[in-house]
Design a protein that fits this description.
alpha+beta
Amino acid sequence: MNRLHPKRRGAIAVAVLVCMMIATALAASTLHSALLGRRETQRLRQLRQTDLLLDAGALRAAERLQRDDAYRGETWRPRDLMPGEGTAIVKIDVSGDAAPRQIDVVASIEPHDDAAARTQRSMQFEYP
């Protein structure tokens, strides 16, 4: 019979436990990196969405001023965000009675997820 000595069995058990600990640490590190990458991707997507909303608000203000000289601004709540993105608000403020008019646009997204951060972008420009 080929029996292992008790000392040798204990050494093998310790080696197996060390290998399992290393494998678990590697798996946990990989999972942590994947979660960080996912959060960063979501944050960048939300920032890009906010930039697009800001551009849409500026175009909306210019288009409204072409049609209505008395346009003073509005608070616009677009509803066609990507699912789970959050609540979007675009505030447009037009000041001045004569050309050029000052237009202030602020776009923000308030996420539904508590772990995500609110994003906001703003711009000012003159409309002839």
